[in-house]
């Protein structure tokens, strides 16, 4: 798999990763190297990464607790303080090793510390590899509301070492696969058809599918880096999916959903809404629903909870002038942005999901 540039960021894969970063460290006179990890990647990923790193620079490790619940401005304050106490300056480098929480939060910390220091992302989850690795979106949650504070900022490089996937639990792998399914639905039949039988996918299949998924996102982001139009299509399934994820995150009586689990739920709902509004074939919606539920299972939700989830839609980042803007599908590979959807239709979509 060849390296390629996405805007100003080089993306490297597997064995090329370490030759590339070592060459980068030689060329740049970084005053200090800081590595941000969580408690999982500290033990599971950092040792093998450090074994392959060639540098005489001082390396400092900063660890945070894992999980979406820690993707907060308070965690950022802790990391900013650690950088200050460890004498980081504007010529320092921050390497973020972890899933989407680490790459989003670490990118935000680097982009704002002393008005910006260099950073490199090393995504270790499937979700981070195919989603957080490209596009420069950084940031944190505001309470239970997803990604409300952040900036678009480009890392110097992204290192995608798929051997890190061996450290993941099955539910984390499935969570990342959800974003690849989304890429298929918004891009076209050729990529989508790889996922017709989810249960048959193997790790051997994944390397090239990951590469293709990153290419899909790169092509979108390069055309629309600041999400004026085309990049909104990457939010298919996310309008309701993020609201569902936020609701489960904030409700102590609910088991927190992984990002991909919530997005699968959101994609089923938004496929149904597409069938009602934009002519997306209802039989295709039923096929997608059955395939997704057979693989991911069904999330337990009651009709009494619909209104609370709908209320959370007002915080979606695509909203403009008080309108809640959905991304829907006219067909596989033909998304339509800025669609308005009534609460009554969202109710019907939930009931379709439950039926």
From TrEMBL:
Entry GO CC: cytoplasm
Domain 3-dehydroquinate synthase N-terminal: 62-174
GO BP annotations listed: aromatic amino acid family biosynthetic process; chorismate biosynthetic process
Keywords, in A-Z order: Cobalt, Lyase, Metal-binding, NAD, Nucleotide-binding, Zinc
Transmembrane spans: none
Positions of the 3-dehydroquinate synthase C-terminal domain: 176-319
E.C. number: 4.2.3.4
GO molecular function, one term: metal ion binding
Signal peptide positions (record): none
Cofactor(s) the protein needs: Co(2+); NAD(+); Zn(2+)
Entry function: Catalyzes the conversion of 3-deoxy-D-arabino-heptulosonate 7-phosphate (DAHP) to dehydroquinate (DHQ).
Annotated protein name in UniProt: 3-dehydroquinate synthase
Native source species: Pseudalgibacter alginicilyticus
């Amino acid at each position: 798999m060849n390296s390629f540039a996405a805007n100003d960021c080089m993306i490297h894969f597997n064995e090329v990763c370490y030759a590339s970063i070592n060459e980068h460290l030689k060329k740049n006179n970084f005053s200090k190297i800081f590595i941000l990890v969580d408690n999982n990647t500290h033990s599971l990923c950092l040792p093998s990464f450090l074994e392959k790193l060639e540098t005489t620079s001082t390396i400092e490790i900063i660890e945070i607790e894992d999980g979406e619940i820690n993707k907060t401005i308070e965690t950022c304050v802790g990391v900013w303080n650690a950088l200050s106490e460890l004498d980081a300056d504007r010529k320092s480098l921050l390497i973020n090793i972890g899933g989407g929480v680490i790459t989003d939060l670490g990118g935000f910390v680097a982009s704002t510390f002393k008005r910006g220091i260099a950073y490199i992302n090393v995504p270790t989850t499937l979700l981070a590899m195919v989603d957080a690795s490209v596009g420069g979106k950084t940031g944190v949650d505001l309470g239970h509301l997803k990604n409300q504070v952040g900036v678009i900022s480009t890392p110097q490089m992204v290192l995608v070492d798929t051997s890190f996937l061996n450290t993941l639990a099955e539910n984390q792998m499935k969570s990342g696969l959800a974003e690849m399914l989304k890429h298929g639905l918004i891009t076209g039949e050729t990529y989508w058809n790889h996922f017709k039988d989810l249960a048959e996918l193997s790790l051997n299949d994944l390397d090239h599918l990951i590469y293709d998924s990153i290419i899909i996102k790169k092509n979108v982001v390069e055309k629309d880096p600041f999400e004026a139009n085309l990049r909104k299509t990457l939010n298919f399934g996310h309008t309701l999916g993020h609201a569902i994820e936020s609701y489960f995150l904030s409700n102590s009586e609910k088991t927190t959903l992984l990002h991909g689990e919530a997005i699968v739920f959101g994609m089923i709902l938004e496929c149904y809404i597409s069938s009602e509004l934009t002519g997306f074939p209802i039989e295709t919606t039923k096929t997608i629903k059955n395939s997704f539920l057979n693989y991911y299972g069904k999330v337990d939700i009651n009709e009494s909870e619909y209104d609370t989830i709908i209320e959370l839609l007002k915080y979606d980042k695509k909203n403009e002038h008080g309108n809640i803007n959905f991304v829907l599908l006219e067909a596989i590979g033909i998304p339509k942005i800025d669609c308005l959807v009534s609460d009554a239709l969202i109710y019907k979509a939930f009931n379709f999901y439950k039926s």
